Amino acid sequence: MAGVKNYILKTIPRMPNPVNRALLALNRDPVRVYGSRYQSYRGFLCNTELQYDPVPKLLQSVRDAVARVPYYRQRYANRIPESLAAFEQEIGFIEKETILADYPSFMAEGIDLSSYDSGTTGGTSGRPLHLIAPRDRYVVEMATMHSLWARAGYRFDLRAVIRNHHLRDGEVYRINPITREIVFDGFRLNSDYFAQIYQTITRFSVRFIHCYPSTAYEFAAFLLDRKLDVSGITAFLSGSENVFGYQRELIQHRLGIRFYNWYGHSEKLVLAGYCPGTDHYHVEPAYGYFELVDELGRVVRESGTNGEIVGTSFHNPGMPLIRYRTGDYAEYVGDHCPSCGRQLPVIRNIKGRWSGDRIYNCDGSFVTTTALNLHNDLYRAINGIQYLQERKGALTVLIVKSPEYTHFQEADLLRHFSGKMNPGTAVTIQYVDHLLRKPNGKFVHLISSVATE
Questions:
Q1: pLDDT value at position 439?
Q2: Is residue 115 part of a domain?
Q3: Closest by CA position to 259, among listed 219, 298, 308, 293
Q4: Residue 377 CB contacts under 8 Å (≥ 6 apart), including other chains
Q5: Backbone φ, ψ for residue 391 (5° rounding)
């Protein structure tokens, strides 16, 4: 029966668009797709929205891991924590390399692997990590994600998706009536195709655009440049990339469209999304256990302090990860949101894989891409910016011009970037029509072939 269901779920999205457009009308309730457990979990999230204590679930997860997973049994058999303070004192950190060094010992004993799916992390910092997760993980995943998007007004609406899909030549879009998506080609981002996207979402009355932050920015810049009517677009739903201030400024303040961003990762330990009233991230406490730790491994509890995001599994008994260092960083805001009243961790300024944001001078010193941030006047003169570094002491800045760009901005940009780098570093500006993307369609602010030190 499961095989038949999977076949149907894979086959329907490949059917002709006119057929799938008709099927859209029959699918307006997510419970039909995701089942009664999805509905029950959405209810749980609603009932615990204002306050949920994750510590009992955390301690139980550690006990289960020690009982069933060889790595944790060997390391913690005689010191299972009974309190949060004991957990923070007794349980050490792991990271990707820890798992890669002894992968079999992280698999729970006695599990039925046919009930699990396998996948990999992105491999942005080296060899990718293979992981397993329960096949019914989508219940927690989609229920939590839909709860996040609901804060931007989403109610299982039809979505435009511009992410990592390749479509056939000449194919403008593809309809998936099951997930209620109009899927566009994430690797064909130019003005002509943006015009086709706009015409399509207008024809279908699409209110939500699901994409990477960089794509949201580029499409928003196109809409602003063409002075197109955006009154029908409620929000961009974006994630999976770092977010920059100039992107929010153009989308929310100049274009007037809600820019709703969330944070997650392949290990599925931490999920966070913008508060409805601010651009601070709420960390969902029932999804997994979240910590922010400083360089000495101490838990950050002081507002304004930066730390590394650490997560612990709540929903993966087959391969639980306990105190896993993600390599992503954020600034701690507090444990309560004054805007909406929720009692939960609040963070901001999330940066993924900070070591990849270094631009090196000849002598090995470096600045981060954050330090190169422009002021708003310069951002308004460009429709895109990206950094390339092939060797130390040389930086190429790719610029997509906006209609407001003049030679005065070029002089200001050169002065700005040269002033941030050492005197011996050569800065070159190169004008392009499109910024570069990774094979999965994601945008990275810096493309560097210089080894980090």
A1: 74
A2: no
A3: 219
A4: none
A5: -150, 155
The residue type found at 78 is N
Which tens digit of pLDDT belongs to each residue from 73-102? 999 987 899 999 999 999 999 998 899 889
Count how many Cα atoms sit within 13 Å of the Cα of residue 347 in the half-sphere of its side chain.
30
Q: In angstroms, rounded to a whole number, what is the distance separating the alpha carbons of residues 279 and 260?
A: 8
CATH number at residue 384: 3.30.300.30
Q: Bin 113: left if φ > 0, else alpha if -120 < ψ < 50, else beta.
A: alpha
| Residues 263, 340: Cα–Cα separation, whole Å | 19
The total number of structural domains in the chain stands at: 1
The reply to whether 398 falls in a domain is yes
- Domain, as residue range, for 370: 355-448
Q: Is the pLDDT of residue 356 over 70?
A: no
Q: What pTM was computed for the model?
A: 0.79
Alpha-carbon span 346 to 47, nearest angstrom: 19
